[in-house]
Fold this protein.
Amino acid sequence: MKLLLLADQESPYLWDYYQPGRLDGYDLMLSCGDLSPHYLMFLVTMGRPPLLYVHGNHDLAYANCPPEGCDCIEDKLVTVKGLRILGLGGSALYSGGPHQYTERQMAWRIRKLHLALRRAGGVDIVVTHAPAQGYGDGADYAHRGFACFLPLLDRYEPRYLVHGHVHINYGVDIPRVLHRGKTTIVNAYERYILDLPDPRSR
């Protein structure tokens, strides 16, 4: 399976300079937030794969202009093309925005999903906006990661955690890919291609 991961910055390659065929071959698109709803609608219109998204801390426009044709997976565990995918958008609370959460609030969101996770036998991909604490987060207050993501990873051992929020161009030492246990953590800034075996063939 070929997944297109998106976050934070609209890709000129896929929007401003789009050419027919550039979305061919993808099975699924995942948006980690802070992207224009018009951009997501363009991608799902021009490409054939479904597009799932969570909110970033700047996605205020989604309230009045949700990206049509795309599926919001906030606080949901969904199965798409054999992949169990969990959505937990938003960032750490820093200015009081609608998609900002305290550590306690995010932990409560996760606790409410444990029954669904147990029934599904776990999760393959966790889609977030903010990173996990200590794994690609920023030193500043607004870009700190969530500590409560760590026990989620340790308990269910998803194959991937995909996030945004921390822009790769913030600094030369910002990692694109990290690992914690059996989980690969990917910063999806702008666009990232993820190839993985088809789970339906297991």
